[in-house]
């Protein structure tokens, strides 16, 4: 794919951050962005890397009215050797296309997706933090931009990528977070869009998230929409339980976002000496197993936080504490192993690391 590149003069580049470990998530953006347009009958065209700038969209653009919007979240890391590393980018490219397809949007070639990210990362290399814990976050996004109010898939789309240097996700560091079990709202229903990384899933989930935050908890733990019993996932992370020395997580089934971190932990588990199990768990089973001591650890898993230990779950207005509200050995092990691989410190036995050339 031909990409037109428009560069800024050196003296117009943004000043770099001071301490990357203090960067808040998604508040700073780099010098450049990528955009490409899709027209029905013409396919993808006009690929461009250009200075970071506001988009000009018609107020009738269908994304504003019918919500055809999907996104991805990835990180680029700097290894001690100075290489730029991506983690399983083809999985993000493939999931991007699955999300696009689910929202009746056009797919983008996987090889081009990765090649464009490589091009952008080489151009923006100075923004990739050297410090472990910090990274350059990539946000590939697809939107419908045809100015038309008829309810149907749009005839014009944009795919853009913006980049944001980020510090560790939680300002408190690698300390346990608290979860609030949402019993009134649901995140995703059967046959819905829960498995697509669609912005609309987040829009609908904010009310539940606000309840959790207002009550002093860090994130929501979602239950299934049908029976309000089965544990599904956390705000932007998949959920894991260490139970009877097994690593248990709910199975994907259309209502859970198929996380790449989730998949990676499942693939790492056996090698680290813990059996991975995908099965449904009710919230009652979880609470009983916390009380009986059968559940020894709970943690979330996602690109932004990598592994996020859970120290407390609130269900029906009662708090249940896990592992004395301290980070457990498995959360630590998975965090160390995964970040070790991502930053190029540990052997990449699974061939997950993509060196940007
Ligand atoms: C992105 C996301 C995840 C985590 O996926 P990763 O690929 O591991 O980053 C989990 N749940 C939801 C709802 C998400 O949007």
Topology:
Elements (H helix, E strand, L loop, with lengths): L3 E2 L26 E8 L3 E9 L10 H5 L2 E3 L2 E5 L5 E4 L1 H14 L7 H14 L11 E10 L11 E11 L10 E5 L17 H16 L4 E5 L7 E4 L2 E7 L2 E4 L10 H13 L2 E4 L4 H10 L2 E8 L3 E10 L2 E4 L7 H14 L10 E3 L2
Parallel strand pairs: 1-3, 9-10, 9-16, 13-14
Antiparallel strand pairs: 2-3, 2-8, 4-7, 5-6, 5-7, 6-18, 7-8, 10-11, 11-12, 12-13, 12-15, 15-16, 16-17
Helix pairs in contact: 2-3
The structure holds pyridoxal-5'-phosphate (PLP).
The site of pyridoxal-5'-phosphate has 13 residues, from strand 12 and helix 5.
Structure write-up:
With 357 residues, the protein is α+β, with helices and mostly antiparallel strands. The protein has two domains: 163 residues, Aminotransferase class 4, branched-chain amino acid transferase, N-terminal domain (D-amino Acid Aminotransferase, Chain A, domain 1, 2-Layer Sandwich); 166 residues, D-amino Acid Aminotransferase, subunit A, domain 2 (D-amino Acid Aminotransferase, Chain A, domain 2, Alpha-Beta Barrel). 24% of the residues lie in helices and 30% in strands. The chain contains seven helices and 18 strands. Strands 1, 2, 3, 4, 5, 6, 7, 8 and 18 form a nine-stranded mixed β-sheet that branches. The radius of gyration is 21 Å and the shape is globular. The chain starts with a strand and ends with a strand. Bound molecules: pyridoxal-5'-phosphate. The site of pyridoxal-5'-phosphate has 13 residues, from β12 and α5.
